[in-house]
Amino acid sequence: MKRLVCLLGSPKRKGNSAAIAGRLCAAAAARGWEVRTFRLNDLSCRGCQACMACKGTLDRCAVQDGLTEVLAAAGEAEVLLLASPVYYGDVSSQMKGFIDRTYSYLVPDWYGKKKPSRLASGRTLVWVLCQGFRGEKSFGDIFPKYRRFFKSYGFDRSHLIRQCGADPEGSTELRDAAFKRADALAAELFS
Asked: Could you say which of 11, 13, 60, 153 is the most buried, measured as most Cβ atoms within 10 Å of its Cβ?
């Protein structure tokens, strides 16, 4: 069975990014995929401790907390869905904490290696990013920056659903447009 792992980076349970991600998860489940969703805000976890154990004595992150299961699940997923609001020009701190801990996916002396990751290649990364600011030029650097990191982990294909001008109550018109993009992507990914 194919697996989709969804990480929700918003502290809001019914926020824009969670609603769009939920649409993708429902489509995957309807097509027979195994779907696991983690609300990062609900987990007790710490950031990367820069202990370098993952580059020495261990082949995983040494920190044992709420992200331990998340890192393992994300590392095995055929599709990884990361959904986050944009806070201060970047992903939420909850999502950033997860991303920092993915450093453990890299092998020792990874820089410059043909295969720098411990993870299998050929997987897909999907980002859902929602920002209040309407201007599409603002914060357009978030996706390319993180796509580069995840490509080195083996997520060779990546997709973005971006909602600009998202208000806290979730504008119906903007959400409908994002839902249409999610539906089209789901038809492509989960068929």
From this structure: 153
pLDDT digits (tens, 9 = 90+) for 58-102: 999 999 999 999 999 999 999 999 999 999 999 999 999 999 999
The C-alpha angle 54, 7, 4, rounded to 5 degrees, equals 95
> Helix, strand, coil shares of the chain as percentages rounded to 5?
40, 20, 40
Judged by DSSP in three states, 21 sits in helix
DSSP annotation of 67 reads H
In this structure, what token pair is assigned to residue 69? 């299961």
Q: H helices within the chain, ranges in order?
A: 16-30, 67-76, 93-101, 142-152, 172-189
The tens digit of pLDDT for each residue in 141-186 reads 999 999 999 999 999 999 999 998 877 655 677 778 899 999 999 9
Domains of the chain: 3-189 (3.40.50.360)
**Residue 48: closest CA among 8, 103, 91:** 103
